[in-house]
Write a structure and sequence with these properties.
The protein has 361 residues and is an alpha/beta fold. The protein is built from 13 helices and 11 strands. The termini are far apart. It binds nicotinamide-adenine-dinucleotide and magnesium ion (MG). Pathway: Metabolic intermediate biosynthesis; chorismate biosynthesis; chorismate from D-erythrose 4-phosphate and phosphoenolpyruvate: step 2/7.
């Protein structure tokens, strides 16, 4: 097992990464003196796979265990699921001495975190992320949210977990397409922050896709280190944290225009990263050789390269509604070579994207 800390003063917490860690949960909870009453939150796909393991080890260690099982999928990241959690808590007379534990992917983690932030004005919570995306991204950093019918993640809070326990063995049951989608965010960390890690991924993407444990642990750990460092500097996204949105400006447009669920988030990010790299090359922030390496790594991870044919006008409209737009000016994260990135204002988005989306010679 490997560990790191997200350094946020009194709200600092540990992330442990390893294999077979789920059953270590009771020991960690005891060490942190967290409440002995635990509400586990999972979903209909993950619960049959892992919930009883977690329930049994907690019960064996004298914890009082309750559980809620939400419907699966992004469509359930809504007020109804949140209410399902609140209702279970209230019906079971849970007071502030209750720990919420999220067991699942990013959807379960985000909803559970928001429930923890708001139930009785805040109860402690722990993340047991089971998808690659949740392990390298959503479980770390304290962004919690649910969707609103008018938009994704519009209702939420910054609320940090007390512990993140990452068991890479859970990835064995993750569908291959979801694994690849998680790898898009993994590649992102290499491009924006760590050239050595990017090179390591070029060497080992096949090991990761074959779910070889030591490689998974290494990759998850390196991503969490990068995210933890960014979050420790900029918890509430005033500056540096925005760099984590590399590939997401165009990615969000693809996701939204294709309809959520058609293209997975990570797939959209992969296509968005390639567009960003092509724009960076045209702005002389990186070389064509860097674009080529990014393209090859995306392909090696089983991710799509070519965005679906969408109207440029529709894409621009979505991008200009993005959170990073100020006074009508589009800003996006561009890579500087490989291993570094910056936020750049795009003076003429129409022209820039027309070029970036044009078929390559
Ligand atoms: P998800 O939670 O929907 O999981 C993807 C699918 O895999 C689901 O069907 C899930 O049930 C299933 N699954 C999860 N673990 C499994 C396992 N071990 N075995 C078999 N199936 C498993 O989606 P996701 O990609 O994990 O997360 C996406 C969500 O995360 C989005 O809602 C996004 O907004 C959010 N997110 C949040 C942050 C943040 O900082 N809070 C960052 C990135 C993404
Ligand atoms: Mg993302």
């Amino acid at each position: 097992m490997e560990s790191l800390t997200v350094g946020l003063g009194a709200r600092s917490y540990a992330i442990h990464v390893g294999a077979d860690l789920l059953t270590a949960l009771p020991d960690w909870l005891k060490a942190l003196q967290l409440p002995r009453r635990v509400m586990l939150v999972s979903n209909q796909v993950v619960a049959p796979l892992y919930l009883s393991t977690v329930e049994c080890c907690l019960a064996a260690a004298d914890f009082q265990v309750l559980s809620v099982i939400l419907p699966d999928g992004e469509a359930s990241k809504n007020a109804a699921s949140l209410e399902q959690i609140y209702t279970s808590l209230i019906r079971s007379h849970c007071d502030r001495q209750t720990l919420l534990v999220a067991l699942g992917g990013g959807v379960v983690g985000d909803i559970t975190g928001f429930a923890a932030a708001t139930y009785l004005r805040g109860v402690p919570f722990v993340q047991l992320p089971t998808s690659l995306l949740a392990q390298v991204d959503s479980s770390v950093g304290g962004k919690t949210a649910i969707n609103h019918p008018l938009g994704k993640n519009l209702i939420g809070a910054f609320y940090q977990p007390r512990l993140v326990l990452i068991d890479v063995k859970t990835l064995q049951t993750l569908p291959a397409r979801e694994l690849s989608a998680g790898l898009a965010e993994v590649i992102k960390y290499g491009v924006i922050a760590d050239a050595n890690f990017f090179h390591w991924l070029e060497l080992h993407s096949a090991n990761l896709r074959r779910l070889e444990q030591e490689f998974l642990i290494e990759a998850v750990l390196r991503c969490c280190r990068i995210k933890a460092a960014v979050v420790a500097e900029d918890e509430t996204e005033q500056g540096q944290r925005a760099l984590l949105n590399y590939g997401h400006t165009f990615g969000h447009a693809i996701e939204q225009l294709c309809g959520y669920g058609q293209v997975l988030h990570g797939e959209a990010v992969a296509m968005g990263m390639l567009v960003a790299a092509r724009i960076a090359e045209r702005q002389q922030l990186c070389r064509m050789e860097d674009v080529q390496r990014i393209r090859e790594l995306i392909a090696a991870c089983g991710l799509p390269l070519q965005p679906p044919s969408l109207s440029l006008e529709a894409c621009l409209e979505v991008m200009l509604r993005d959170k990073k737009v100020t006074a009508g000016r589009l800003r996006m994260v561009l890579n500087e070579g490989i291993g570094s990135a910056k936020l750049v204002e795009i003076a003429d988005p129409g022209e820039v994207f027309a070029v970036a989306l044009a078929p390559e010679l």
